[in-house]
Description:
Layout: E1 5-9, H1 15-28, E2 31-35, E3 41-45, E4 48-53, E5 56-57, H2 58-61, E6 64-67, H3 74-86, E7 90-92, H4 105-113, E8 122-125, H5 128-137, E9 142-146, E10 155-158, H6 161-168, E11 176-180, E12 186-193, E13 196-205, E14 220-223, H7 230-243, E15 247-255, E16 258-265, H8 270-277, H9 281-301
Parallel strand pairs: 1-2, 1-6, 6-7
Antiparallel strand pairs: 3-4, 4-5, 8-11, 9-10, 9-11, 12-13, 12-15, 13-14, 15-16
Amino acid sequence: MERVKILWFEAPDNNTTAEYGESLGKRLGIHIDSVNIFDIKFEIKNNESILTVNNENIVQKYDVLIIRSCLPYLSEAITIAKLFHEAGKTVIDESMANEAFVISKMHDYIRLSNNDINIPNTLQLHNLSQITEFIDTYSAPYIVKSIHGDSSFHVYKVYNYVEVEAIFLKYRQSKLIIQEFIDSKELYKVSVIGYKAIKTISIHHSLDEENLLIDSSKKYISTSVSEDYDFIRHFAEKCAKTLSIEFCKVDIKVKNGKPYVLEANRRPGILGFKNETGYEVGIDLINYAVAKARRKYEKNRNG
């Protein structure tokens, strides 16, 4: 394998990140082309499944598929990943090649908790009576958020039934979860690539703002290698391995010495992390993908 060719897949509204991915390729001397769902022609011809861009078969042309943002085109992204994987190509995240792939916070919380990873007490809301049940059981404040997530949007800090009800009525049934609020001054955001946490952690100091996005403070500290944060990194790695996510960002809070997972983001922003910390996690992602593709190539060549 002389030169690895990477296809970088983004949702149609993420042109900036797609362009950033291509620019990283130029800096690293790696061939990277970016596409979105509307660039790809899906076709079955003579009973053969074919994916083309500008009349070129992309499964044949590229060695690596990196799927970044894909909603609301999850089914199409899984189809593309499956075809690349079946052709022996490298897919990041490889779990996308599994048709059972899901994007659901509740699904992830259940898998994590079943593997002894601490999760705040959580309830998926199907009806208004469940709000009363949760509030009667746990003390305020609470976190209410969308079960699917959207770049830290649709996350609310609330204190009573009226506030939760107002949010619940704005969303479709079963699309929200309510959680106990983990009272901690620091929120750790850890990027994990290839099940290894990178050296830089983004630490958010939260403000006590009501009914606003949890990340509204926009205060960040960049920290490099430090034994003080090793347990945070190891905890994030355990989360990634449990969920089989090669590239993710794990949000962690610590209370009474015990770490809790707030979220394992399967499609973490790379530009946002760069702006927060100055660290270009995108470079690590590309280098990981290239190394994985070369290992697969050597394994196949040697039988």
